[in-house]
Known about the structure:
This protein is mainly beta and 402 residues long. The protein is built from 3 helices and 26 strands. The radius of gyration is 20 Å and the shape is globular.
Amino acid sequence: MRMLSVFSGAVLLAAGFSPILAADVDTSEINVSVRRVFPEVQIRRPIVVTHANDGSDRIFIASQLGVVHIVANDEEAEESIRFLDIEDQVVYNDKQNEEGLLGMAFHPEYRKNGQFFVYYTTKSAPRVSVISRFTVSKDDPNKAEPKSEQEILRIPQPYWNHNGGTIVFGPDGMLYIALGDGGNGGDPHLNGQNLKTWLGSVLRIDVDHQDDGKGYAVPKDNPFVSKADARGEIFAYGIRNIWRMSFDRKTGQLWAGDVGQKLWEEIDIIVKGGNYGWNNREGLHSYEGGGQASSQTIDPIWQYPHEPDKQPTIGGQHGKSITGGHVYRGKAIPGLDGYYVYADYVTGVVYALKYDWSTKKTTENRTIPSTKLPVMSFGEDQNGEVYYTTPIGAIFKLAPGE
């Protein structure tokens, strides 16, 4: 079964992923365009674009400030409906802009149970991220019930930055949570290699059941459940600050863009029990002051540098903050099928990466003509079409080439 690739961590860990660092990677421009959508809809700092997978074809757009909007799946839509407004509960500051509402995910059975989940920085305590369950109104499918909130997980954060924030349901029905190393710079608390803390990890939890004293259950098949001095919720670790991860809706692989510290940005395939090396290393390179990477550390499938004049590049790619995206599985652009679409926030360049699973090598990293605006986040509609958001509120959609 194709879904096996998500959960067969031991096999993939032993085999490893091998990024290709050679001149034969295709870095040409791909015949894909982008166009602005919903130009009349005003949403400040749109940070999530998603759908409820309920057959309604609605698009949900969450603002980092704490408001979730509904927009009709019409590129010329001129208005939005407020689905959820928890702005009074959410911490957001333009000068500390890695807090706020950072993630949202609809339950796989949303059509039946009306449940969705939100990850946000709460005003109820300093430097705390929460993941809460909400339900939709029984009387109005376009309105959530703010009073239905049930907090399921509370995560203390040592600093305002590196909060991660992606939450996404896997093909197994479990909720996956990307948490950064907690912040500051260089992982001063060494959280990345510490299985005693949730920070610097991808968690996997069961929101349909509850263990004693928890708002969720720890899946019995998580990799560190039986390990002494380890948090059972951890699925993978050695993470600096994943900024967006997503499951390939066709194969089930979990893709992530992990933001670098000083020199390298990277793309990872997240597998069960995987150690991605931070802060012993950054990308494929030893990180200053870090220890030695284990022979079991999983390599990124792609990396690119901050300083192209000092570090080798392929196709001249460089940047300073990766924004992870999606493997394209829509119908509108057949030539993009199977490409992982991502961007760099600082340069605003959008890329389409192709990974050859048979050789475990990246074969293409092609550019998509774009606006060069900072790319905050990527998202999908119910049909698998891909969108990206920008800090100025403009939202763009991938489209066939001209």
